[in-house]
Write a structure and sequence with these properties.
Length: 227
């Protein structure tokens, strides 16, 4: 039986986060109990929102426990299951944390389609960042034809997913302007010709159509979640 490689928070950072704040250990892989699922992770998330979790302060997220496995979203494959909702071989998205394996009662797991879409996409455009971007653009901003949308933090997980609504109709006549991190005296600038933002409009149309098909399913889920 393989061992479970885990990344633990060894101590809280006082300033800049460094590898010294973490500790890597190996632990036995537990067998799933009644109703549990054993997942082998393929990809884990590394998001800016994790930084506040490392501080012992009140926030919208519970602080990361010192000595515990670093929390984070994961995608992986079910290795063994005693839960009727999941079968070995299922691709799932969940909250497994920074470790090779995790045990779950299934409440945090969602079966995803890893054949049509790369599995890691469910941590980005089809995960929480993508849903957040979609909700912000389509529900809060709701841009109209001819308007310009400014994305000031375009390099982040949410910002880089925020033009997902453009996948549906490339002739929507909505102008997307992507800024970058800047000083107070530096203006927001559009991406130069040939940059990532510019290339998005010229390449990957087949992938966009496929992503949009899955994204529509995410929209339905988002509506259910919002009640």
């Amino acid at each position: 039986m393989p061992t479970n490689l885990q990344v633990l928070l060894d101590h809280r950072p006082t300033d800049t986060v460094s590898p010294a704040n973490f500790r890597i250990v190996e632990a036995p892989v537990g067998a799933p109990g009644p109703g549990e699922v054993l997942v082998r992770h393929q990809f884990l998330s590394l998001d800016p929102a994790m930084r506040p979790m490392l501080d012992d302060v009140r926030s919208y997220q519970k602080p990361q426990e010192v000595g515990g496995v670093m929390r984070g979203r994961t995608v992986g494959i079910v290795e063994a299951s005693n839960n009727p909702r999941f079968q070995p071989g299922d691709a799932v998205q969940g909250e497994g944390g920074w470790q090779r394996f995790s045990l779950s009662d299934g409440r945090d797991l969602t079966i995803v389609d890893a054949k049509a879409i790369p599995l890691q996409a469910y941590l980005g455009p089809l995960g929480l960042p993508g849903v957040t971007a979609w909700y912000g653009v389509s529900r809060l901003i709701a841009p109209k034809r001819g308007e310009t949308v400014l994305v000031s933090a375009a390099t982040g997980a949410v910002g880089s997913s925020s033009d997902a609504s453009e996948w549906k109709d490339s002739s929507s006549s909505i102008t997307w302007t992507f800024g970058r991190r800047r000083s107070a005296s530096s203006p927001v600038t559009s991406p130069p010709s040939g940059s990532l933002g510019a290339r998005r409009s010229a390449t990957g149309s087949k992938t966009r159509r496929r992503l949009w098909s899955i994204f529509c399913r995410v929209r339905i889920l988002a509506r259910c979640w919002s009640g």
